[in-house]
Amino acid sequence: MSEEKTEGQKLTEKLGFKIKSAWETASPADLDDIEKFSTRYKDFLNAGKTEREITLQIDSILSKLGFIDAKIAFSKETPLLPGDKIYQNIRGKALNFAIIGKKPVTEGAAILGAHLDSPRIDIKTNPLYEDSDAAFFDTHYYGGIKKYQWTTVPLALHGVIFDSSGNKQNICIGEDENDPVFVITDLLPHLSQEQAEKKMSKAITGEDLDILVGSRPFYDEKAEAKVKLNILRILNKKYGVTESCFASAEIEAVPAQKARDVGFDRSMIGAYGHDDKCCAFASLEAALHFANRGSAPERTVICSFTDKEETGSSGNTSAESRSFEDFITGITAKTSGSYDSFKTHLALNNSFMISSDVNAAFDPAFASVFDKKTCSYCGKGIAISKYTGHGGKYGCSDASAEYVQKIIKIFNAEKVRWQYGNMGKVDIGGGGTIASQFARLGIEVIDCGVPVLSMHSPFEVISKIDLWTAYKGYLAFLKHI
Ligand code: MN
Ligand code: MN
User: Fold this and answer.
1) Fewer CB within a 10 Å sphere, N or C end of the chain?
2) CATH of the domain at 170
3) Does residue 79 sit in the same domain as residue 216?
């Protein structure tokens, strides 16, 4: 027999708000969905670790679904009609796509934006050197990493290099079981007394992050730097490159392991690059809901997948570039009949966006940096960040009360389990997303995404239910905003 609730208990239920684990309300059908969604996500991750590979993957998904290249669509005489699908591949590293809605785009689009780049170790422009009968690649890390985490981790090399005849060669070494891998070495504990006394940020420096790539000499009495020479010989044979070809190459070292389930209960996924490919995947799946259905969405649905977020969103493939404005200008012109900058501004100012980026998940091992009342947790659903930034909210895009309320109302109506998403304690640190670049265009924007443990490490962890809930949240947003 259940006891009668006290007045205080009843009042707490009525007035308070307690966020419980999202697993508690998941139905057996949901659990099945979550598992299937996670499997597709792991495949998506394993097939593309870099912005180039992910862009290529999304490009091919869209082409198969009948999306038309925007260059062609924008140059044709024929208008874009509700249900039409277009995409724009931006220099092979970023991508926008749209499904034209029934309402005029000047009344605003529903936009999801995520970034495709992740922190990693880039190979320098003149990387190969030999020291003490070993050959190394000199590197320059990309994005915010804790450098010590990247030593003694099997690494794969991905990217492009032009051979000496000027032909582009795609590089992907270390992902196949039979491929060799590469590694940044670290000092044995026995001789680490001095290193252990250093500040964590100084124990391994940027210049220490050199990748071991070989140790066998080319046999010749008179030749110099024989190990390096042998590596050059191998690279020349396989890719037709010589030493100077690295001057233009873009080669990224990323962890060689695949995405794996984590935990006895398999409730989590561990992988390189969840930030921000988990939100990119959830956004893609949510938007493609309208491409598959065969009927047009109310508002024009747009996904913007950007590059260079991890280095501050500058550059011509980043959120800061004009490519998004150009894309929406094209859509506005082709749906309204004429190029008119006023219409473009109307479209931008009336648009709504979720910046779908990850959040820092509470970690009990480092509890002191979090505000437990406002931070996000693994397993409690999609995290809503009203604002990001650091210190006194510097550099943030702060979503208005009106807009946050709108989003929460949609999530509640669609039973999307949401939680707060403030990054950490005030004055501890902070971060930004692409939200500010889109806010600058006059778009109403808010960050909503998946909480991540060990963010920016070689093996980040997310909860399967948060990934799926993010997808549900993005879908609800696209349907009802
Ligand atoms: Mn991110
Ligand atoms: Mn990041």
Assistant:
1) N
2) 2.30.250.10
3) no
